Protein backbone atom coordinates (compact mmCIF):
# COMPACT_ATOMS: atom_id res chain seq x y z
CA UNK A 1 0.00 0.00 0.00
CA UNK A 2 2.90 2.38 0.64
CA UNK A 3 3.76 2.29 -3.05
CA UNK A 4 0.17 2.97 -4.06
CA UNK A 5 -0.42 5.88 -1.72
CA UNK A 6 1.05 8.63 -3.94
CA UNK A 7 -0.83 7.54 -7.08
CA UNK A 8 -4.09 5.95 -5.92
CA UNK A 9 -6.89 8.10 -4.40
CA UNK A 10 -7.72 7.49 -0.74
CA UNK A 11 -11.20 6.16 -1.53
CA UNK A 12 -9.72 3.54 -3.86
CA UNK A 13 -7.11 2.54 -1.27
CA UNK A 14 -9.86 2.11 1.35
CA UNK A 15 -11.86 -0.02 -1.08
CA UNK A 16 -8.82 -2.18 -1.78
CA UNK A 17 -8.12 -2.58 1.94
CA UNK A 18 -11.76 -3.44 2.63
CA UNK A 19 -12.07 -6.09 -0.06
CA UNK A 20 -8.55 -7.45 -0.32
CA UNK A 21 -6.80 -6.44 2.90
CA UNK A 22 -7.36 -9.79 4.55
CA UNK A 23 -5.50 -11.47 1.72
CA UNK A 24 -2.24 -9.66 2.29
CA UNK A 25 0.29 -12.10 3.61
CA UNK A 26 3.12 -11.03 5.84
CA UNK A 27 6.22 -12.90 6.90
CA UNK A 28 9.16 -14.63 5.38
CA UNK A 29 8.42 -18.36 5.34
CA UNK A 30 10.31 -20.94 3.36
CA UNK A 31 7.37 -23.37 3.14
CA UNK A 32 3.61 -23.49 3.53
CA UNK A 33 4.03 -25.78 6.56
CA UNK A 34 6.26 -23.20 8.24
CA UNK A 35 3.73 -20.42 7.60
CA UNK A 36 0.86 -22.56 8.83
CA UNK A 37 2.74 -23.44 12.01
CA UNK A 38 3.15 -19.71 12.73
CA UNK A 39 -0.55 -18.97 12.21
CA UNK A 40 -3.86 -19.79 13.83
CA UNK A 41 -7.12 -20.93 12.35
CA UNK A 42 -10.48 -22.52 12.84
CA UNK A 43 -8.86 -25.82 13.72
CA UNK A 44 -7.64 -24.23 16.97
CA UNK A 45 -9.29 -26.11 19.88
CA UNK A 46 -9.88 -22.83 21.73
CA UNK A 47 -12.04 -21.55 18.87
CA UNK A 48 -14.09 -24.75 18.80
CA UNK A 49 -14.59 -24.56 22.57
CA UNK A 50 -15.70 -20.92 22.41
CA UNK A 51 -18.21 -21.61 19.61
CA UNK A 52 -19.51 -24.77 21.26
CA UNK A 53 -19.96 -23.01 24.62
CA UNK A 54 -21.72 -20.06 22.97
CA UNK A 55 -24.05 -22.39 21.06
CA UNK A 56 -24.92 -24.21 24.28
CA UNK A 57 -25.61 -20.89 26.03
CA UNK A 58 -28.14 -19.99 23.31
CA UNK A 59 -29.65 -23.48 23.35
CA UNK A 60 -30.05 -23.30 27.13
CA UNK A 61 -31.60 -19.80 27.06
CA UNK A 62 -28.66 -17.92 28.61
CA UNK A 63 -28.28 -15.74 25.48
CA UNK A 64 -30.56 -14.68 22.63
CA UNK A 65 -28.16 -15.68 19.83
CA UNK A 66 -24.52 -16.05 18.95
CA UNK A 67 -22.25 -15.44 16.01
CA UNK A 68 -18.75 -16.95 15.80
CA UNK A 69 -18.68 -17.59 19.52
CA UNK A 70 -19.80 -14.09 20.52
CA UNK A 71 -22.99 -13.99 22.60
CA UNK A 72 -25.77 -11.43 22.11
CA UNK A 73 -28.36 -10.76 24.79
CA UNK A 74 -31.02 -9.01 22.70
CA UNK A 75 -32.85 -10.71 19.81
CA UNK A 76 -32.08 -9.27 16.40
CA UNK A 77 -33.33 -10.37 13.01
CA UNK A 78 -31.67 -9.94 9.65
CA UNK A 79 -34.71 -8.55 7.86
CA UNK A 80 -33.51 -9.17 4.27
CA UNK A 81 -33.06 -12.86 5.09
CA UNK A 82 -36.47 -13.12 6.74
CA UNK A 83 -38.13 -11.26 3.87
CA UNK A 84 -36.59 -13.62 1.32
CA UNK A 85 -37.70 -16.67 3.30
CA UNK A 86 -41.21 -15.25 3.75
CA UNK A 87 -41.44 -14.59 0.02
CA UNK A 88 -40.42 -18.18 -0.79
CA UNK A 89 -42.80 -19.62 1.81
CA UNK A 90 -45.69 -17.55 0.41
CA UNK A 91 -44.94 -18.83 -3.08
CA UNK A 92 -44.92 -22.40 -1.75
CA UNK A 93 -48.25 -22.23 0.05
CA UNK A 94 -46.76 -21.49 3.47
CA UNK A 95 -44.25 -24.32 3.34
CA UNK A 96 -40.52 -23.75 3.63
CA UNK A 97 -37.82 -26.40 3.46
CA UNK A 98 -34.27 -25.28 4.14
CA UNK A 99 -31.01 -27.19 3.90
CA UNK A 100 -28.10 -25.38 5.55
CA UNK A 101 -24.57 -26.29 4.51
CA UNK A 102 -22.94 -23.60 6.65
CA UNK A 103 -20.02 -24.17 8.95
CA UNK A 104 -21.57 -22.87 12.16
CA UNK A 105 -23.59 -24.80 14.70
CA UNK A 106 -27.00 -23.50 13.64
CA UNK A 107 -26.20 -19.85 14.42
CA UNK A 108 -28.65 -18.40 11.92
CA UNK A 109 -31.42 -20.77 12.99
CA UNK A 110 -30.92 -19.98 16.68
CA UNK A 111 -30.81 -16.25 15.93
CA UNK A 112 -34.08 -16.29 13.94
CA UNK A 113 -36.05 -19.12 15.55
CA UNK A 114 -38.52 -16.74 17.22
CA UNK A 115 -39.53 -15.41 13.79
CA UNK A 116 -39.92 -18.88 12.29
Strand content: 5-15%
Q: Which runs of at least 5 residues are low in confidence (pLDDT < 50)? A: none
Number of domains: 2
The radius of gyration computed from the alpha-carbon positions, rounded to a whole number of angstroms, is: 20 Å
Assembly type: single chain
User: What summary fits the major beta sheet?
Assistant: 2 strands, antiparallel
Number of strands: 2
Mean pLDDT: 84
Helix fraction, binned, reads: 40-55%
Task: Please tell me what the overall shape is.
Answer: extended
Strand order within the widest beta sheet: 1-2
- Compressed to H and E, one letter per element, the order equals HHHEEHH
Quote the distance from N terminus to C terminus: 46 Å
The helix count comes to: 5
Structural class: mainly alpha
Short summary:
This protein is mainly alpha-helical.
Structure, explained:
The protein is mainly α and 116 residues long. It has two domains: 1-39, no CATH class; 46-112, no CATH class. It contains five helices and two strands. The protein has a two-stranded antiparallel ribbon with strand order 1-2. The radius of gyration is 20 Å and the shape is extended. 7% of the residues are buried. The mean pLDDT is 84.
Amino acid sequence: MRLLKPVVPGSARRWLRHFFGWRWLRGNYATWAEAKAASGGYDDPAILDRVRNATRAVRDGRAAWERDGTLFEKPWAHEPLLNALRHIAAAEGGKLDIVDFGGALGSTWWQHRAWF
